[in-house]
Amino acid sequence: MGRLILRDIHKKFGKDEVLHGINIETGDNQFLILVGPSGCGKTTLLNVIAGLERESGGDILINDRRVNALSPKDRDIAMVFQSYALYPSMSVRDNILFGLINRHISKGDREQILQDVTHMLQLEKMLDRRPRQLSGGQQQRVAIGRAIARRPALFLFDEPLSNLDAKLRVEMRTEIKRLHQELKTTMVYVTHDQVEAMTMGDLIAVMNDGVIQQLGTPDTVYNDPANRFVAGFMGSPSMNFIPVTVRQSDGTLWLETQGGDSSPGHLPLPLSTQSKLKAVEGEDIILGIRPEQITDPGSAREGSALHTVELRVEMIEPTGADTLVFTRLNGTPLVARAHPSTALTQGTNTSLSFHMERAVFFGVGDGRRLA
Amino acid sequence: MHTKEFLRPGRFLLYGLLSLGALFFLLPFYVMLVTAFKTMPEIYSSGILALPSHLNFSAWQHAWSSATIGAASEGIHGYFLNSFILVIPAVIISTAFGAFNGYVLTHWRFRGSNAFFYALLLGTIIPFQIVLLPMAWVEGKMGIAGTLIPGLMLVHVIYGLAFTTLFFRNYYVGIPHDLVKAARVDGAGFFRIFFRIMLPVSTPIIMVTAIWQFTMIWNNFLFGVVFTQGGQQPVTVAINDLVDTVTSVHMWNVDMAAATFAALPTLVVYLIAGKYFVRGLTAGAVKG
Predict the structure, then answer these.
(1) Which domains does chain A have, with CATH numbers?
(2) What topology is assigned to B77-287 in CATH?
(3) Which residue in B178, B188, B196 is closest to A85 by CB distance?
(4) Contact B165, B102 (CB under 8 A)
(5) Residue among A47, A85, A103 minimizing CB distance to B182
(6) Where is A162: in which H helix or E strand?
(7) ipTM of this complex prediction, to 2 decimal places
């Protein structure tokens, strides 16, 4: 349930246009993530969907019903806020029931819903408490409970986990995913945290400057980014960008890395990529390669177009699961991800393998995807 | 460690200055009280600061029920009641409208709401004297000139609106807008949000505003003397008349007893609700 369709949504605040024609279409029961840096317009878009802000143009359809002219309460939505926004003077019970009373749900039904919600989120022990007597995590559960009680066609989440500590955030992430599976309702979830976006969503809209840069599954957005912005925003540590020049010799395309003080380097290209880059031969382009695609030779998967280079280790950051290696390729800073058992010493050279078949390429000026 | 801290010269200076300040403000009240308990001969014979030889309540009785004010000799009790009849509705109405205005100005912003707010702010610095003539003209047109209720009450309500709106606006600015959004999604309308979400968390600022308005209106003399006549006047005007209506000798003890009666309600209000006053004022100051 809960198909959301946005058609060419524009939003202006005075003369400033903050949303430049947003188009999104979800299926039933999807988990849509709106992700982007602060000020990209994602929260404004959520408020427009909720009806808390009026759009300047475009259509909003929830379950194929155009809701532009409807007030928030008539749009069949529920919303969870970053600040939880629990009504401070009401008990947890009254917080959950408030929306139901406003909608004139009968007392018997209200009690049944309250019981279901309480059970689903384990709120039994705190029903009579006030919001300020609850911890942040508990307040968050109540806020979610209040939204669930409505049984809406569409759930809207506005950065709901950003006020929680790291451990609780991971727990609540799982809990919200579980709820999504149980409730079988479309959820729209705003976050600036690309890890949340990757782990929770089945459809991600990466936004920047009021424009959707890419709309796709987590896998597509991560592995097949539409442009340099998406590639750089998704993933942590973020993708390495290396300025290179496309060269040709003996009918084979290869990449020349521009060196600072050292002599130019040489990176080979897999055959599939060569054909796509023929058009930009002789030009400067940007090579994008994720840290996990530059590894110690031992971790490198066989059968891939590997290119191994000796690089100087400037710094290491062991994360436990693997070790991040900070190095430089002809002056360009690089982050690589090595197996934790790799022997690494700061200031010495180590072999690192580039998985060139996973590399992506962007134009220098506009950041558009070339291959 | 605490004793050491206390014994430092700086501490002595601090407490010395504070005590001096307290003495400065308490001395007139002390003089009022001791004078009111003295008989007239005692007032002439003893010093102004001397304690009365025994507690003499005759001046209090006289001031309350038989002193001559204007034409009648019934004491100030009728005027005392007038002040209550005036203050209670005036405080309730001006506070209620202030809360409502503050709510609209912070959570239902409209085009020009900032300009409206600054215009209201201007109202807090307009002296009493400036509004006298326009008010008198308006009340004359409305046919309520010279009455305590609704005439004088309306003057106080209108004059107080700028202050009460400012107080509530600064308090409601600190209440997250997400609360209003959440309530709107939950199906609550403009008034329901005001009564169910906003008002229940407004106790501190309601106390501040009520104390402020109570004190302002109770102590006000100018509006009372201009806008009411005869038996309709509030207690502040009555005291002035009492002091002015000199027959043969000036009854200092009666004047002082009457003045103490007039000061009591504000004193009681501060004693009961004073802690809210400080709390509410600082809450508004930090967030506003």
Answers:
(1) 4-233 (3.40.50.300), 240-363 (2.40.50.140)
(2) MetI-like fold (1.10.3720)
(3) B178
(4) yes
(5) A85
(6) none
(7) 0.84
